[in-house]
Specification:
The protein has 108 residues and is mainly alpha-helical. 56% of the residues lie in helices and 8% in strands. Helix 3 packs antiparallel against helix 4. It is flat and about 45 Å long.
Length: 108
């Protein structure tokens, strides 16, 4: 059995995706970098900076959703935003842990 599938800029370790099931992909709207099953092959500082920007972007979108008038709020949109934010934060935390494990300090 295959443990990962090569995707753009990295590897996907989703057991579902390895079997051809796209459910994990749908959970992050197809953005591999948001997915907890994705491991990129790129500069860790670049990845961390990009993930930090994505966390900020997702928070701003969620704040706009919360601030919007109740009649215009779509529950599906909230579920997608929440899922994307959770995945992005998890990826960012994993990148921080990996960088700390290599003896690096963020920002240096």
């Amino acid at each position: 059995m295959v443990n990962f599938v090569e995707v753009d800029q990295g590897n996907c370790y989703s057991p579902l995706f390895a079997l051809g099931n796209m459910n994990d992909c749908y959970a992050v709207a197809g953005d591999c970098e948001l997915c907890k099953h994705y491991q990129g092959r790129k500069n860790s500082k670049e990845f961390i900076n990009k993930q930090e920007q994505k966390v900020e972007e997702k928070l701003m979108r969620l704040n706009r959703w919360i601030a919007s008038e109740k009649q215009y709020r779509k529950t599906d949109e909230y579920i997608v935003l929440r899922s994307q934010l959770q995945a992005t934060v998890e990826n960012l935390l994993n990148a921080y842990v990996e960088e700390m494990g290599q003896g690096k300090v963020h920002g240096q």
